Amino acid sequence: VQLVESGGGSVQPGGSLRLSCTASGFPFSSTHFSWYRQAPGKDRESIAYISSTGDSTYYADSVNGRFTISRDNAKNTVYLQMNNVKPDDTAVYYCARVSGPWLWGQGTQVTVSS
User: Fold this and answer.
1) How many CB atoms lie within 10 A of CB 82?
2) Which of 14, 34, 50, 94 is 20 to 30 A removed from 5 (C-alpha atoms)?
């Protein structure tokens, strides 16, 4: 049972990045997921949520209109498309299973810098 994030890296302000979270060991299609992030010296914050069917999504104000959460149930993968990134988006990004017992991935670093 695990979540594995990938796709992090360094990007310039205004650029784009797509994070992936691949799940294994549990029924993916019946599970809700969220993306969280934690910047240095700050608390971990929820930034996006997607329901098991994908019909319901939620975004924090800080990323609304720039980030998009989606899922591919055939690939057991949740995505976070990050567009028009800003230096304040620099953080470790975590995928989380938020239905049933919570489960966290190991995190992937995103650094936005010119």
Assistant:
1) 26
2) 14
Cβ atoms of residues 95 and 33 within 8 Å: yes
- pLDDT (tens digit, 0 to 9) for every residue of the chain, 114 residues total? 999 999 999 999 999 999 999 999 999 999 999 999 999 999 999 999 999 999 999 999 999 999 999 999 999 999 999 999 999 999 999 999 999 899 999 999 999 999
Contact between residue 44 and residue 34 where contact means Cβ atoms under 8 Å apart: no
Per DSSP (E only), the strands in the chain are 2-6, 9-11, 17-24, 33-38, 45-50, 57-59, 67-72, 77-82, 91-97, 103-104, 108-112
Residues in Cβ contact with 80 at an 8 Å cutoff, skipping those fewer than 6 apart: 18, 19, 21, 35, 48, 67, 68, 69, 93
The whole-angstrom distance between residue 46's C-alpha and the CA centroid of its chain comes to 9
Tokens 């240095």 -> residue: 40
